[in-house]
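Sample 3 of the quickstart, ligand magnesium ion:
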Amino acid sequence: MSGLAGNAGAIVAAFGRHYEVELGDGRRAVGYPRGKKSLFAVGDEVELSPDGQITGHAPRRSLLYRSDAYRQKLIAANATQLLLVVATDPSFSDILISRALVAAENQGLRTIIVLNKCDLVAPLNGARALLAAFATVGCRILELSAKHDASPLLPLLAGESSVMVGQSGMGKSTLINALVPGAAAATREISTALDSGRHTTTYARRYHLSNGGTLIDSPGLQEFGLKHLTPREIEFGFVEFRPYIGQCRFRDCRHQTEPDCAIKAAAASGTIHRRRLEHFRQLASPHHDESH
Ligand SMILES: Nc1nc2c(ncn2[C@@H]2O[C@H](COP(=O)(O)OP(=O)(O)OP(=O)(O)O)[C@@H](O)[C@H]2O)c(=O)[nH]1
Ligand SMILES: [Mg+2]
Ligand SMILES: [Zn+2]
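Result:
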């Protein structure tokens, strides 16, 4: 590991107040942050003191995180690829996709949108219609059914450090179980009416794939706050806007109500999807940062 001596390894599970660390020789150790704050994420390369304190971490190649007015929530460090998992059922939030795309784009992560549960026929076309807004954002959209065959995803994960993000119940852990033999990630199977145990994922864990990639399962999220990003960084996350940037009448155009806005014109002509302009306007307007 570059720059780290001693007991060094990668964080493979994050429990909030402590971490599971995979050491260079394959052994697992428990790591504790020095202060109260959890400043590390799955994927971080850390150094442990003999008593398990995390004494340092290697520079990060990427850090996927979200933030609200009060705090940051680290999702994954050193990932190369984001898998945004949505499903035909239950329904998903499309602005949450735009939010996660902005965060990923600003950290140099490639994104794949996975539409899971395509075996459920009735809600399939509705889900596809909601995803149509993302057809021109430069990320692949993969349809599959984790329950029946998750293998189409596997070649896209080879050699990559991927992290799955999505709302609860979309099937992230089911995908893990389909792709990683023996993973036994807890999924939300509700077997009987008395079963109150909804086995929702409560902490992030990284798994090794047979093709050399790694894949992180993370707890479902309902919000993806971008308080840490400036309006320009949010704009940067809307890749299909780029050909039009600099073509508005005003150089500092926010693409809201300004006249002669090239983005607005592109949305009117259909080159930019109307929903994406709506998402941009909500995200770039500070008072609406947490609205959906
Ligand atoms: N019909 C169908 N159901 C699926 C499929 N994939 C997952 N499910 C079901 O969806 C439910 C939720 O799956 P999970 O894998 O626990 O979802 P999750 O995204 O990990 O949820 P959180 O851990 O709460 O974030 C379970 O009952 C799964 O059996 C699929 O391809 N088809
Ligand atoms: Mg889960
Ligand atoms: Zn404009």
